[in-house]
Amino acid sequence: MQDLLDTAEFARYIVMDARRGDYGVVACTSQGQWVGTARVLYLPQQNPGYGFVAPGIGELGVSVQPEARGVGLGTELICDVVEIARVRGDRGVSLSVETGNPARKLYEKLGFVDAGGSTGAMLLEF
Q1: Chain segment 80-104, per-residue pLDDT in tens
Q2: How many domains does the chain have?
Q3: 35 contacts 67 by C-beta, under 8 angstroms
Q4: In sequence order, what are the beta bridge partners of 23?
Q5: In this structure, is the dihedral angle defined by the CA atoms of residues 116, 101, 60 and 90, taken in order, positive or negative?
Q6: What three-state secondary structure class fits 37?
Q7: Are 68 and 35 in contact (CB under 8 A)?
Q8: Is the pLDDT of residue 75 over 90?
Q9: What secondary structure does DSSP assign to 3-20, as a single string?
Q10: What is the rounded CA–CA span in Å between residue 88 and residue 106?
Q11: Tens-place pLDDT, residues 21-67
């Protein structure tokens, strides 16, 4: 973990900051172990993430432990943070996914569209 925090490129995706509006959800087992997370970060325009689309649009990130994949947990987590974004009155959420990544089909199914540009950004507007 410290290696990730010491690498600026990755650290910006790990540290959440409620002061800038970041939020997320965590899925845990009945024993309290985390198996998945979805978070929306409002990274600054001067140090944007790969899925940056515009100021005020949060960037969605999803992580699901290998043993919890393939059962719809990622979809559920995404839907949870999208609902939070809607309730908050956000304009939308973005994400970054490489062309050819199988997750891209899931994002399209959930309403995300290609945001243009070379970063693989996708956008879900409300």
Answers
A1: 999 999 999 999 999 999 888 989 9
A2: 1
A3: yes
A4: 40
A5: positive
A6: strand
A7: yes
A8: yes
A9: HHHTSHHHHHHH---GGG
A10: 24
A11: 999 999 999 999 999 999 999 998 888 888 899 999 999 999 999 99
Q: Domain containing 24 — which CATH number?
A: 3.40.630.30
Listing from the earlier edge strand, what are the strands of the sheet with 92-96?
Answer: 23-28, 34-41, 58-64, 92-96, 121-125, 113-114
Enter the tokens of residue 31. 């024993």
| 3 state SS for 55-78 | CCCEEEEEEECHHHCCCCHHHHHH
Q: Please, are residues 111 and 124 in contact by the beta-carbon 8 Å criterion? A: yes
User: What residue has token string 């949060």?
Assistant: 58
The sign of the CA dihedral 64, 125, 122, 9 is negative
Tokens encoding 41: 């970060």
* Full domain range(s) for residue 7: 2-125
How confident is the model over 45-54, as pLDDT tens digits?
888 888 899 9
Chain centroid to Cα 116, Å, comes to: 18
Separation between Cα atoms, residue 26 and residue 39, nearest integer Å = 9
